[in-house]
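Please discuss these two lines.
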Amino acid sequence: MKRIFTFVLTMAMALCLAACAVPKGGGSSRKNGLGNAFSAVVGITLDRLEAEGEIKRYGEGVWEIEFSQPNTLSGVKLEFSEGSVLASYKGLSFSVPQSAVPVKAMMLNLIKAVEDNAKLAELSGEESDGMLKISGSLDGGDYTLTVDKDGLLSGFEMPNNKLTMKFSEMKTAEITIEQSASETSAETATEAVSTTTTTANVQ
């Protein structure tokens, strides 16, 4: 009887030690969806700047963002490709406006972080409320990249730069630059027709 009691006690202690050895909230991994082409709505907080817009990733290093807020940036589109940045407004190209320079720098950090992690077989990080938080460091500072259960981009933060980006309405259907350009041309043509019609009615 004494031996049985000792055996049970030993097993209980072993199980207890094993349970204590498992770290709570420890590292985790999941599939990598960062390499997908996507479009999403993005909300950006950069120090005192609050901005919103639509962001697209066409392929490795090829991104664009078109702002809807604030008024100083509304309608401005920044296109990133092969290390260069182009700015435009309703199809008219120009140099990056001063109001967009800080966002341009932070976008380059986002792109670098995503593209670096997109090359990994799977993503590793810390689990938090169903999300996976991936920590890393860039020349611009430390960052935290957040992905959802499918490994798709959900958030990006650089605390030292007072930057927070939140992504929503994520769509991963294949998109191309030509397709996006066609949609922009169609929107411009519709606006032109609308303006012409309004002018005709006024006359």
Q: What stands out?
A: The chain is about 30% helix and 40% strand.
